[in-house]
Amino acid sequence: MDMFWLFQYQFTLKKIFWFIFPSLQAGQVFIIISLRTVFMVKLVVLVSGKRKSGKDYCCEKLKAALEPLKVSIHGVSHSLKAIYAETHGLDYSQLISDGPYKESHRLEMINWGENVRDNDPSFFCRATIPSSCEDDIVIISDCRRPTDIDYFQSHYRTLTVRVEAHLKEREKRGFVFVTGIDDMPSECALDGYDHDVTIVNDHSRVFSSEIANVVWRIRNSL
After folding, report:
1. Distance from the CA of 17 to the CA of which of 52, 77, 94, 178 falls in 20 to 30 A?
2. Is Transmembrane helix found in the keyword set (predicted)?
3. What are phi and psi of 114, to 5 degrees?
4. CA angle (167 as vertex; 139, 193 as ends), nearest 5
5. Nearest CA to 80 among 157, 150, 140, 163?
């Protein structure tokens, strides 16, 4: 089930609960629907970082290093992109890729997402972890705002991870500063946040040691 239809499914469940229990508030309905996921997931790892810092790469390496634990990777932006693609007639599979298609829609998508978040800061977070999730650990690959972290911390045990890379290294990976994107809250809101642990993903550190350190922190948090 893709993220858009998962969100629609959860929304339908909420309407059913409201019909049966009209006195319930929205938050209470969401808690009832989410209880199973909350009890199954032992830890949610919240990853943030600048564009081209290597967040997705680090998440995949963390997942592999945590075997045999059951680990899945989800993104707040995946739910955003699924809904944006559906409402704008776009190709979701290309929006979640690293190609030029996503970049050509990035600015408009960011502005659309900001407008949605202004009205409901947790809108996309609620659709990120499937209600059917039975994994030990969920990695959120793209936290961008303090409100994202606040949402997950209020529902799960969490560990916050910052991925850092020197600007020159990011430029080698294709980063080019774009006004209206790289100076927006979606890229800057967590710059000063005090994360639990940092992965330095460039040649200044031994990458395997960086991953091992985070794995140690995760295992000791379970």
Report:
1. 77
2. yes
3. -65, -40
4. 45
5. 140
CA–CA dist 72, 60 (Å, integer): 9
Task: With CA atoms as reference, report the closest residue to 186 among 86, 108, 127.
Answer: 108
Starting at the edge strand that comes first in sequence, how are the strands of the sheet with 137-140 ordered? Answer: 71-74, 137-140, 43-49, 158-164, 197-200
The dihedrals phi and psi of 122, each to the nearest 5 degrees, come to: -100, 5
Q: What is the pLDDT of residues 120-169, one digit of tens each?
A: 999 999 989 988 899 999 999 999 999 999 999 999 999 999 999 999 99
Q: Are 141 and 199 in contact (CB under 8 A)?
A: no
Per-residue tokens: 78: 């995946």
Whether the CA torsion 187, 78, 221, 218 is positive or negative: it is negative
Peptide bond into 185 cis (omega under 30): no
Contact by Cβ (8 Å): 95, 110: no
Q: Is the pLDDT of residue 38 over 90?
A: no
Tell me which amino acid residue 130 is.
P
- Gap between the Cα atoms of 15 and 5, Å rounded: 15
Q: How far apart are CA 143 and CA 128, in angstroms?
A: 11
